[in-house]
Design a protein that fits this description.
75 residues; alpha+beta; 24% strand
Length: 75
Amino acid sequence: MAAVADLPAEELLRRMRRGRGPEPSLLAGWEYLGLNTAPWLRRVGADRFVKGFADGYGYNRRVPGRSRREEVTAT
């Protein structure tokens, strides 16, 4: 994941525009590691999060730790 996180913002935007959204019913019960790209969030250690889906709604859970290369474990 760190390789994607280190891409320039322009490349991340290009990839996001090229992609398609998944079928919501396929996301239920899964959690995905995500990264916010705003530099100030990285400086304060709030750039990593877990995105989950349950009952038709999405939620975010903050991931502790400052390094993007640090392993994420389930809580």
